[in-house]
Write a structure and sequence with these properties.
about 140 residues, mainly alpha, about 0% strand
């Protein structure tokens, strides 16, 4: 159970208001697990209490801020791991079913896609550096 700082509502990944998704992100769990625990608590324990707590959390918690990260696959990865190109968040592999993150097979697929993108960019750079256009531009810059 690794907390990620402050507790937010995650409206993007939430079903009703994003409270369960926010709690799941805070504790590093899957959202479906928190939803099952909440529904079980409503049905088996004090239903009105948990519903009122959910509504209170809906109004009290702030929405999760949108991160405006770069869309490059390798940008901002200094010591923090690979970035997920769609969301701009580090790729985290889950080791247990209830933990949040990607399954190992999906994480491997994402990282291989990023390697392929980087390889294409590297090939383009190599092609340019070994071209006569680069040599000509370099000679003109020397003058």
């Amino acid at each position: 159970m690794k907390g990620k700082g402050q507790l937010y509502r995650d409206s993007k990944n939430g079903k009703i208001a994003g409270v369960c998704a926010g709690v799941a992100a805070y504790f590093g769990w899957e959202a479906w697990l928190v939803r099952i625990i909440f529904v079980s608590a409503v049905l088996l324990a004090g239903g009105p209490f948990f519903i009122m707590a959910y509504i209170a959390a809906w109004f009290i918690l702030d929405k999760k801020p949108l991160h405006q990260g770069p869309s490059a696959a390798f940008a901002g990865t200094t010591g923090k791991g690979w970035q997920n190109t769609e969301q701009g968040e580090p790729i985290s592999v889950k080791s247990k079913v209830w933990q949040s993150g990607e399954p190992p097979k999906q994480a491997f697929h994402d990282i291989m896609g990023q390697f392929d993108t980087l390889e294409v960019r590297l090939r383009k750079m190599e092609t340019y550096v070994t071209s006569s256009e680069f040599q000509l531009n370099r000679e003109i810059s020397r003058l």
